[in-house]
Design goal:
The protein is mainly α. The chain has helices at 2-27, 33-38, 40-61. The chain contains 3 helices and no strands.
Length: 74
């Protein structure tokens, strides 16, 4: 769980840096919003790929739970 929380703060930090950079470029009259608007689906693709990667990674790390021993039931 701590790893998940650490990853979330990293993602939010990167998002804040990107938005700050976009607003800074806008202050210099560089039209970045047209490019952002045009390529916004890439954000969804990257986000989905990250979720898929983390899910597969977590699935491979978790050990299989041992099957219950049915021979010793009362």
């Amino acid at each position: 769980m701590a790893e998940h929380k650490k990853g979330n703060s990293l993602v939010w930090g990167i998002i804040l840096i990107i938005f700050g950079f976009l607003f800074l470029l806008d202050q210099f009259d560089i039209d970045v919003w047209r490019a952002v608007w045009r390529f916004w689906p890439v954000i969804l693709i990257v986000w989905g790929a990250d979720k898929l990667y983390r899910g597969l990674k977590e699935r491979n790390i978790q050990p299989d739970a041992p099957a219950p021993d049915k021979g010793h039931e009362i």
